[in-house]
Amino acid sequence: MTLTEVREVSGQAGDFTVRLLEHPRYVDMDKCIACGECARKCPKKVDDEYNQGLGKRKAIYVKYPQAVPLKYQIDPENCIYLKNRKCGACVQACPAGAIDFNQKPREKTVRVGSMILTPGLKPFDPAGIRTWGYDVFPNVITSLELERYLSVSGPTEGRLARPSDGRPVKRMAFLQCVGSRDLNKAGHGYCSGVCCMYALKEAMIAKDHEPDLDVSIFFVDMRTHGKDFERYYNRAKEAGVKFRRCRVHSLEPAEQNGGVYLRYITDRGKQVGAEYDLVVLSVGLETPPSAAELAGRCKVGLNQNLFAERGGFQPVQAKGRPGMFVSGAFAGPHDIPQSVTEASAAAAAASLPLARVRHSLTREKRFPPERDVRGEEPRVGVFVCHCGNNIAGVIDVEELAAYAAKLPKVAHVERNLFTCSQDTQELLKKTIQEQSLNRIVVAACTPRTHEPLFKETLKASGLNENLLDMANIRNQGSWVHQAEPEKATEKAKDLVRMSVAKVALLTPAPPLTVEVKQSALVVGGGLAGLVSAHGLAEMGYPVHLVELTSRLGGSALHLYQTWRGEPVEGKLDSIIRKVTSHPLITVHLNSKVSGAEGFVGNFLSTIQGPQGETQVEHGVGIMAVGGRAHKPGEYGYGEHRRVFTALEFDKLHTLGDSRVRGGKTFVFIQCVGSREPERPYCSRVCCTHSVQAAIELKEQDPTRKVFILYRDIRTYGQREEVYRRAREAGVVFINYDMHEKPRLRLDNPDMVEVLVWDHVLHEPFRIPTDVLILATAIVPNDLNKELARIYKLPVDADGFLQEAHAKLRPVDFATDGLFLAGLAHYPKPVEETVTQAQAAMARAATVLAKTRIDLDSIKARVIEERCDGCALCVDVCPYHAITLEEVQGEPGRKLVRIEAAKCKGCGCCQATCPKLGVEVAGFTYEQLASQVAAALA
Amino acid sequence: MALRVAEEGLSSCSGCEVAILNLGERLLALAPQLDFVHMPLLMDHKYFGQLGDGDLKRLEIPQAELGLVSGGVRNQEHLEVLQAMRANCGTLVALGTCATHGGIPALINGLANAELMERYYRGCETNDPAPDPTETVPPFLERVYALDEKVKVDIYLPGCPPHPDHIAEAVLAFLEGREPALPHKSVCDACPTVRQGKGQLKSVRRFLQNAQYDPAKPIADMRCLLEQGLLCMGPVTRAGCSGADGEAPRCLKARVPCRGCYGPVRQNGNQMLDMLNALASNGIDIKTLPDRAGGLLRFSGAHGRLRPRPAAK
Amino acid sequence: MAFEPKILAFSCNWCSYAAADLAGASRMQYPANLRIVRVMCSGMVHPNLVMEAFSKGADGVMVLGCHPGECHYLDGNIKAQARLAVVEEMLDAYGLEPERFRLAWCSSAEAERFVEVVTEMTEAVRGLGPNPFRPTRPEDAQEVA
Question: Is the pLDDT of residue B313 over 60?
Fold first, then answer.
């Protein structure tokens, strides 16, 4: 349902009635083939929002070429016909007759059990605020505009030029925190969380385009707190990006050259100015008015930042609104990994209460039995699509069809106006059956969009779906050689010849399925493990929860409160109780996984416990073995009785230890063990924790002196609120540099003397300290490496488990059926751990919800006639799907074996084997070689 | 009537003929069924009449049902003898790797003839070079050819030399009118060493280095030599050296890596390309290998695989 | 008649093949000398296939995959890159110019890059002239592969 908005919601969790309004697209989605003829003929040019208004689009358009669904739409605000009933150029142009000006807004009502709100964000608009000169100076642009300038698909095709005069950019400056951390000008107290990283990325890409480019980033705190972000920051420094810690207070036009003049203060306190060709405003995120309206209609509460209200232990649940879930930028200023994780978590949370009715509305499609064509000679049917005029307008389709008819093994050739249309599918079916065709070539558009459709048609005609090949004569033919029809026709003949050659060699592959053991193994009984185990059990799947120690709870046992101030202990106790009393959860304490085999749906793991070894079968596994606090070897830790780690301090603070109770001066040192050469990552949680603790110390006794010595304060997102409160409460923040760490004098047992360089007064500063708190790094557990060995999982350079894709698959492993959550992945606070655990559980549930998994037919298989067990392919397989095994009954003879469920069909093995002993179905060496030969025939 | 057999050795070392003799008692058992009509190495049989009184335009090779030819084709004489063998033999067997893939003599294919003369005769410092011979020595062809580059070959029996078991099988099968059962997989198929995967290697050690193994233990307990970092040609080389039921490939039995003497595992395969690709695919830097062409095509330089370095442009 | 090179590209389904599709949807124009063989991953292309293409007369061959780090199959493109050295070695051995082979990365959104790579390649190969191994008899074909 695109172009659709929620008008009204009634009912309650489990039974909402939602009234929807679908706005007209004026294009029939079933007919539109996205050829773009309409947009070419449309006379109305409009500023292109996608290119930030830097380019033009037409009144009939797709937002960007990768849009899903890839269907054109008419913008009624700008369409000449819809405005005054003239024009209609698109109706003339459309070869498929898809334009429908008669579409009207349609109301729809749906009944659902849960709702997930993800209306997204809007970039902050800096226009009208003089300081930034955005709408005053043409060479001041936003980061999103720069993104389009840097993109090869953008308005300048990736060339970096000054908007004012198109001259090359030699010096560029980024101004951070535009519209973020700024109550005065922007009204946003929060940190947008993403701008530091995207500024770094854009700076690096710009340097990549123009190695001599001078780039400076003006920042307040560099917030690279995500996984591998700090490394990227370090790389940017090495690449020569300059970092200047200060807010720029004004922008002026430069005297000559049309540049922009910035005045700022250096970290040594000197006021200086510099000229830049281009100034980029790193704009923050905010909730758009439409999202706020949606929240109103759904009765979802927003906080003062206009983000959805939620709690630390139910991070995707709209606070006080059961049945409604939120994720993405609507829930807070999140980056992509966090948004994707939250989306999965919201899916899990939304489906939990609906677990009982799972599958009650699903229907299965049925196909006729498959004709066995193995003994038959290939009878190839070639279907040449005109695609309206898209192909036939350039390529001589008659000549092509006549040519195809003469190719060997071709039994039937036919031309269609639209081979993809519904009635042609019926025709195809009839022709396949009447002509007893057993191999099909469709010469049309790209298999990437249309192969699934034709595969369905093959299945419906009783042919195995793999007996198909598509010759891409449109996207890679008529469309790209419009001015050379003869050459395009010759190329089309080659492409059809290649397809016919290949299709004749294709063999029917039986559909592969594997059974799913509908149970889960969760390794690690900390917060992440508890949440995912409990969720999966609530969905009805038996869970084995393995914990190394004698107690559930993990690192959360040492935590005192969340950043919102919610106490941890009670919540943790409650979930531990729920887990231990759940009939579907088996808890294995004092245990660990000692071995495993199998693949998605069918793992067999060995759990070693106090009573010996147990083997459990499970369909999925979640790795949540947590992390631990780094024990520092510096700052007098372990030597002086007034030096503590943050967790130790929390305990003493809660217990009312006299050193804390009576303390008057407290110093927190940040980044102890983090962001160091041997641990080049940020531990993400320590800034917020120290700031919060500092506030409490101040609240308990305002006369206390509390100092936080920091490198960058990383109270990202809405945590910025805590930082602001601390400053209001009088907590003193002193910046230090990694090369000029605070020094200590420890000779007095009742006091620690801290020496630091004051970054405001620019002189040394001596703090006689009662309690020194070290904000220590979070380090990965050694168990990570052990699990990695057992389940063949990747571990990153820092020792954390490595997800399949940092952005798009943040809780999956590359190995199907295995997922990760919690500190084992990277340091993170409670709410993000819970989110990730819920996300892992959602991803796991997508496997467990099925009793069988259908596998793709593109799989490698061993040709036993040729394989001789040389094992060259074993380590080449990225999925560890290949093993070497002794042939039964023939001692000493070995062959490789490929686990089909693990194989993804990349063919790395096929390209390694010296004897063609392994081949990927549908892409065998012989099939590819036949295409090569046909292309050059 | 006994089966008539003709045998010829071209550019070769006579090792293949010795392998025939090494059939041992089997040769005695076969003897009544075979009639060797021509085998210059063992029999005095002249090409142009026993007294040199024959037709100098026509090589005299008797008619035979089975022709065995060892060695590659290096010069004009080889070519003529080969063509005569083909014309007079019903079925032609390429005997040994020189005949099937050029073998050791084809290593010279890395040099053009002019370069060869320059390097080994002209450029020699110790005596005055004589002019290139033009008489009594048959002229070189431009390179060493495998038999099937010049004539049709019916049966390929690679090996340096071929194992007597397989020679016997080829002859027996011919007598019985069936396809010979010859090895078609690689040396690894016959190799019992322990294999676990090659991924942990980054480079290949020099050939001179020794394998690690416990001499008291059988070969089946030794780690695959390639996985030990030794350049073992096993995966790209045709099996056969261990015979019909040998316990391990010959070189492996001596605990040294396979040198590739049976030629590529697929008749049309390329040992160099396949080996380099297998190593590169496993993350091994192929540039760490010295003399890649000479080392990897040591036995299969014919078919244009090994050729003179093109002049730099 | 002017020399029109025949160029063969092995394009990975997820990135470069998609970029080629997008180039079409965006109506970008490029020389009609290219013939694409769709593969699932650049890591699926055996160097022997590349050499086979040369032996059958391709004037230029490309392997087009995803950018490093973006492989749909973790690191197939890295394996393709490792095999580049093998192809270069073989080209060198056969006296073919290294410019006749090209390994390039291009994401599914980079239609411009695809067009640029194809155009550059076509022009470069046009400059080199015909593949000297373009066989006249089919049996010569196996010499290179």
Answer: no
| Contact predicate B69/B147, CB 8 Å | yes
Q: Which of A213, A271, A210, A270 is nearest to A242 (CA)?
A: A213
Neighbouring residues of A366: CB distance < 8 A, sequence distance ≥ 6: none
B107, B277, B307: best to mutate for the C interface, most C CBs within 10 A: B277
Per CB-CB distance under 8 Å, the chain A contacts of C48 are 925
Q: Does C95 touch chain B (CB under 8 A)?
A: yes
Residue C20, chain A, CB below 8 Å: the answer is yes
Subunit contact A875:B195, Cβ cutoff 8 A:
no
Q: What is the pLDDT of residues B160-171, one digit of tens each?
A: 999 999 999 999
Q: Are B307 and C48 a contacting pair at CB < 8 A?
A: no
Of C82, C143, C144, the CB nearest to B280: C82
* CATH architecture of the domain with residue range A631-777: 3-Layer(bba) Sandwich (3.50)
Q: How much is the pLDDT for B312?
A: 45
Segment A760-779, tens digit of pLDDT: 788 899 999 999 999 999 99
**C82 and chain B: CB distance < 8 Å anywhere?**
yes
What's the pLDDT score for residue A267? Answer: 75
d(CA A571, CA A507): 58
Beta-strand relationship, B34-38 and A4-12: unpaired
- Do C125 and C60 touch, CB atoms closer than 8 A? yes
Indicate which of C44, C51, C86, C133 best probes the interface with B, i.e. most B CBs within 10 Å of its own CB: C86
Task: Quick: pLDDT tens for A589-611.
Answer: 999 999 999 999 999 999 999 99
Choose among A875, A913, A915: nearest Cβ to B197: A875
ipTM of the complex: 0.95
Name, in order, each residue with C-beta under 8 angstroms of A802's C-beta and a sequence gap of 6 or more.
A793, A794, A795, A796, A813
Do A875 and B199 make contact, defined as CB atoms within 8 angstroms?
yes
pTM higher than the cut 0.90: no
Integer CA distances (angstroms), A232 to A88, A237, A238, A795, in order: 51, 9, 10, 18
Confidence of residue A409 (pLDDT cuts 50, 70, 90): very high
Task: Enumerate the domain spans of chain C.
Answer: 7-143
Domain B3-106+135-176's class?
alpha beta
**Selecting from 3.40.30, 2.40.50, 3.40.50, 3.30.870, what CATH number does the domain C7-143 have?**
3.40.50
**Does A49 have pLDDT greater than 90?**
no
What is the spatial distance between Cα A150 and Cα B207, in angstroms, rounded to a whole number?
51
CB of A914 within 8 Å of a chain B CB? The answer is yes
Q: Does domain A24-104 have CATH number 3.30.70.20?
A: yes
Q: Does B155 touch chain A (CB under 8 A)?
A: no
* Residues carrying CATH 3.50.50.60, chain A: 122-286, 520-626+781-853, 631-777
Q: What's the pLDDT score for residue B310?
A: 66
CATH number (3.60.140.10, 2.10.10.90, 3.90.940.10, 3.50.50.60) of A520-626+781-853 reads: 3.50.50.60
The answer to whether C83 contacts chain A (CB < 8 Å) is yes
Query: Contact A622/A529 with Cβ under 8 angstroms?
Result: yes
A876: which chain B residues are within 8 Å (Cβ-Cβ)? 199, 281-282
- How confident is the prediction for chain B on average, in pLDDT? 90
CATH architecture label of A122-286: 3-Layer(bba) Sandwich (3.50)
Domain positions in chain B are 3-106+135-176, 184-302
- State the smallest CA–CA distance between residue B211 and chain C in angstroms: 26
E strand or H helix at B30, and its extent? helix B25-30
Contact C72 A906 (CB under 8 A): yes
- What percent of chain A is predicted at pLDDT more than 70? 100
Alpha-carbon distance B293 to B110, whole Å?
8
